[in-house]
């Protein structure tokens, strides 16, 4: 990356046209969270107890399992976008910044897949 | 360009501004979001994995979550959520271009963390006082 010309200074930093998409998806997923997380907290608060049988029975119901899986996708995606902004703003070293952004392309996806697999196992029995 | 950077005037940074409520609520929004991403998601996944793995794993999770330090983390996470939620709703209003008048902006910047604390208290009251 050179510093002689305007194009040289921005080359390699990514397209200039992705910001609006990031901004919009952050808000779309925020709307999803606005439904999903209050649902989770209210459901948990309304459970008669927190023993394994009660919580597992609740989580294995189709609607609960669907919404828990959606949390793993929607909420984790929202978190990924938020952490990306955090890295871009506060990690100044180019090497660390690249490493954090590379990790951001792997860890949230892995976390979402792991979460969905757990929900599927809860919903379909096993254990 | 590159040589000129050394003596160009810099925009005043964080340290010289008098703290205002909008600044505080803005950084709280980020802090709460990062706390949920780095602590909340691992706790949520641990809970799901424990539920998926059977009563013994769940007992390990419940033992930690129910201990005093577990409760501190859970209460902290719920506060982070309500803070991020109310602050996020404020951002939706700001996104449509409303709420920038100084008094309105300051008012909601104070109201957001206050509402978040009330919601956190109500949530835990619903769980613990029944």
Description:
The complex is a heterodimer of chains A (127) and B (130). Chain A has 127 residues and is mostly helical. Chain A has one domain (18-123): 3 helical TM bundles of succinate and fumarate reductases (Up-down Bundle), CATH 1.20.1300.10. Helices cover 77% and strands 0% of the residues of chain A. Chain A has 6 helices and no strands. Chain A has helices spanning 6-10, 19-46, 52-59, 62-90, 94-104, 107-123. Chain A is elongated and about 65 Å long. The model of chain A has no long low-confidence stretch (mean pLDDT 90). By secondary structure, chain B is mainly α. Chain B has a single domain (21-128), classed as Up-down Bundle (3 helical TM bundles of succinate and fumarate reductases), CATH 1.20.1300.10. Chain B is elongated, with a radius of gyration of 20 Å. Chain B starts with 20 loop residues before the first helix and ends with a helix. The model of chain B has no long low-confidence stretch (mean pLDDT 92). The A-B interface holds A 3-4, 9, 27, 30, 34, 37-38, 41, 44-45, 50-52, 55-56, 59, 68, 71-72, 75-76, 79-80, 82-83, 86, 111, 114-115, 117-119, 121-122, 126-127 and B 1-2, 30, 33-34, 36-38, 41, 44-45, 48-49, 51-55, 58-59, 62, 78, 81, 85, 88, 92, 95, 123, 126-127.
Strand residue percentage of chain A:
under 5%
Which band does the percent of strand residues of chain B land in? under 5%
How many domains would you count in the coordinates of chain B? 1
Overall outline of chain B: elongated
Order of helices and strands of chain B: HHHH
Query: Percent helix among the residues of chain B?
Result: over 70%
Indicate the multimeric state.
heterodimer
Which architecture of chain B would the CATH scheme give at its second level? Up-down Bundle
């Amino acid at each position: 990356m050179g510093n002689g010309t305007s194009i040289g200074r921005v080359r390699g930093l990514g397209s200039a046209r992705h910001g609006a998409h990031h901004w919009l998806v952050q808000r779309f997923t925020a709307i999803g969270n606005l439904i999903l997380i209050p649902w989770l907290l209210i459901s948990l608060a309304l459970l008669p107890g927190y023993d394994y049988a009660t919580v597992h029975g609740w989580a294995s119901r189709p609607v609960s399992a669907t919404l828990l899986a959606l949390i793993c996708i929607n909420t984790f995606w929202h978190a990924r976008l938020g952490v990306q902004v955090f890295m871009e703003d506060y990690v100044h070293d180019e090497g660390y910044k690249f490493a954090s952004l590379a990790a951001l392309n792997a860890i949230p996806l892995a976390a979402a897949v792991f979460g969905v697999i757990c929900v599927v196992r809860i919903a379909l029995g096993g254990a | 360009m590159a040589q000129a950077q050394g003596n160009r005037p810099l925009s005043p940074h964080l340290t010289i501004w008098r703290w205002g409520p909008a600044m505080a609520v803005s950084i709280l929004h980020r802090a709460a979001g990062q706390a949920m991403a780095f602590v909340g998601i691992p706790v949520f996944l641990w809970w799901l994995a424990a539920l998926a793995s059977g009563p013994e794993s769940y007992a390990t999770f419940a033992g930690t979550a129910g201990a005093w330090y577990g409760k501190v983390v859970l209460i902290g996470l719920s506060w982070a959520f309500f803070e991020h939620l109310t602050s996020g709703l404020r951002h939706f209003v700001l996104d449509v271009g409303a709420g920038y008048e100084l008094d309105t902006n300051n008012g909601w910047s104070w109201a957001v963390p206050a509402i978040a604390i009330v919601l956190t208290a109500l949530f835990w009251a619903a769980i613990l006082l029944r």
